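Quick one - inputs below.
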Amino acid sequence: MENFTPYSALAGGALIGISVTLLLLFNGRIAGISGIMNGVFQAPKNDIAWRLIFLAGLIFGAFIFHLYLPGFNSPREHYPLLLLGIGGFLVGFGARMANGCISGHGICGIAKLSMRSIIATLTFMASGMITVYIIRHSLELGL
Amino acid sequence: MKHNAIALLCGMLFGIGLSLSRMVNPNKVLNFLDITGNWDPSLIFVMLGALPVAMIGFKSILKRPAPILAQKFQFVRKLSVNTSLIVGASIFGVGWGMSGYCPGPAVTGLGLLSFESVVMVITIYLGFFTYNRIFKE
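Output:
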């Protein structure tokens, strides 16, 4: 096992749990990032501002964290642009088709004990694991 | 106004959570998905940190007739497990495994001034638009 970091993962996860709980308690909304993103261009006019503010909060939170702990997460470099670009497209398309991503299904949906979300999350992981297996161990691209 | 302040607070907590848990690091995500290589199970611990909080929170919140600052709770309409869920989740997983990013870390990575995040956010939106166009949503 490489670079296993259970404590920071647990603590970071707890913060995410608090975030999704507060958004539901106060605003009645599910913190699914792909749904919030997509709604920026799809939702009614009076339902857009909070989405942009939430997304700005994500960026601002990470920016402040990075300011105080600059070496904690350094951006990856030299990863093939083609894998990123096609990957991003499939992530976006698939998230719309499945009606959610890791946050909406994996955290909020499972917390509601939704069978759909449990199955979606297991499928994300199985499909992701097969893909990484092919890229890292079958194609041997050295990534 | 108040609900926008909550959105900002929740966004920041989420962004700090993704940073602290290192899920903004795409190699960390790929190492989690690499079960036959140097497997890094940290992502499971992110869920183990988030789920108990959210489960207990959601359970007590949903006993309320309405949220504090809005008239009603807004959920996705109840759907059954169907083909588009499985196909969509499978397509998502391929993209996740190719890039190491899902939508949350893609946006959050902009705060680290990561070039990859810019590429990811643009292409994720291209995926959204393509789906919305095809299925006329």
